Amino acid sequence: MTVDLSISMLYAGLLALLYFALAVMIIRLRWRDRVGIGTGESKDLEVAVRIHGNFAEYVPFTLLMLVLMELSGASPMLLHSLGGLLFVARICHAIGLRMTIGPSWARTIGVLGTFTVLLVQAGYMIGYVVGTQL
């Protein structure tokens, strides 16, 4: 039996490329600042590590939920909306933190976009289970 997960796979691929780019940014800063472990005295490296870490904290879980939604038969429009919003939100979050470690419009969009995806996914999943159990 073949299961079509092409929508989830699209966003997993796009987000993997973004994750790769964030990792390359860290590697370049480690070379530039001669820091092997940790962040040393480099503020740029500290920010890059946090951007990468924040991505690693949120994206795997939201991708897992996207796959589960796709397996449950969620509409392609909903899946593309959530996947697209997550991708844009993660780009904005990275841009925002690079602009300033304080509040910025890009970081705000990144956080709100990521949290919107999480909450919509949670609502969908709870609603799906409750709806199928009644």
TrEMBL record:
Keyword Translocase belongs to the record: no
Cellular component per GO, a single term: membrane
Keywords of this entry: Membrane, Transmembrane, Transmembrane helix
Main location: membrane
Subcellular location: Membrane
Keyword presence, rRNA processing: no
SUPFAM superfamilies xrefs: MAPEG domain-like
Membrane-crossing segments per the record: 6-27, 77-97, 109-130
Pfam families: MAPEG (PF01124)
Domain of life, per lineage: Bacteria
InterPro entries per the UniProt record, alphabetical: MAPEG-like_dom_sf, Membr-assoc_MAPEG
Protein name, entry field: Inner membrane protein YecN
